[in-house]
Write a structure and sequence with these properties.
Pfam families: MULE (PF10551). The protein is α+β, with helices and mostly antiparallel strands. The chain has seven helices and ten strands. Helix 6 packs across helix 7. It is globular.
């Protein structure tokens, strides 16, 4: 748990335009490890990310969803109030390919969840979830299952993503199977997994 003094320091540095590595170095930690993860720092910085406006589901948002659907993906989206304004904003777009459900049905036990950046001109992180299995081969193979463009990497965002994922695989996942989620040390994601998949086994790695 971060102290109020540390939170105030981080907030001040963000407003001053400091980069994430500079913030983590200033905050410090123990044994050469910062007490603030890269993901936590970045989540503070993306708090003011511009969102799609839903006045008519903005042309950019409509075009993106139409393009994704045209490629054979099933699409769902999340929306929320934009600050104090009454109009809504599109905050997240979840999409999965129909063919991926057969993979989940046959070997849906181990999944890798990761987020990447700079994939679009809106600066929205892209979350991906992939299945990992050695079934039918000599080596581990990863298969993309689902993706989501999101406004940030906060716990509530990951909860929304995991809910959409769980609904997507509900018809093809094997009952009684203990899922394994491979992630990096993102506290928001770990909290969301613990809340939404309490029986799942976490596997933390670095550099995914």
């Amino acid at each position: 748990m971060l102290s109020q003094k540390t939170i105030k320091l981080v907030t001040t540095m963000i407003k001053a335009g400091n980069r994430v590595p500079e913030i983590r170095k200033t905050v410090g930690g123990r044994y050469g490890q910062s007490i603030l993860s890269h993901h936590d720092s970045r989540n503070w910085k993306v708090g003011n990310t511009e969102l799609f406006t839903l006045s008519s589901l903005d042309n950019d948002a409509l075009n993106l969803m139409s393009h994704i659907k045209s490629r054979g993906y099933l699409v769902s989206y999340g929306k929320g109030k934009n600050g104090s304004e009454s109009k809504c904003s599109l905050t997240s777009i979840f999409f999965k390919h129909k063919s991926a459900m057969e993979v989940v049905r046959n070997r849906g036990e181990v999944f890798i969840i990761d987020a990447t950046y700079k994939t679009n001109n809106l600066g929205m992180p892209l979350i991906s979830i992939q299945n990992v299995s050695q079934l039918g081969g000599k080596f581990l193979m990863s298969t993309p299952i689902a993706y989501a463009f999101v406004a940030n990497e906060k716990t509530e965002t990951y909860l929304w993503f995991l809910k959409a994922f769980k609904q997507a695989i509900s018809s093809c996942s094997r009952e009684g199977l203990t899922l394994v989620f491979v992630t990096d040390k993102c506290s928001a994601l770990m909290n969301a997994i613990e809340q939404f998949f309490p029986t799942a086994k976490p596997c933390l790695v670095s550099g995914i």
